[in-house]
Amino acid sequence: MAMADAADERAQEEQQHLRAAVHYTVGQLLEHNEEEEGVTFSKLFAASLADLTYRQIGSWTADLEAFARHAKRSTVSPDDIKLLARRDEDLVRWLLGCVFVGSGLLPPLLLTAKV
User: Is the whole model's pTM more than 0.90, yes or no?
Assistant: First the structure.
């Protein structure tokens, strides 16, 4: 029983860490937009957007896992991502411009960026 409790505690800590990372990243993106566009976002808006983003990613993750399981695979593939995006024409167009390298996805902007 103690091992299960420890595993649950680790899982909760990981979830908190991931939620904090999403919150930080959303905050950074909003801050960047504030500087670029000259608009401001309230802290409540930033927190709401971060929570919505975290929940959406969780939903997409569950869908991607279900697509892979349905195809009798244990690994999510680029085809699963395309299936997930099938209802969003802009996202499909963006994905078609991406290149899958190994298990990673390189967006078009990263492919043309000078390093």
Answer: no
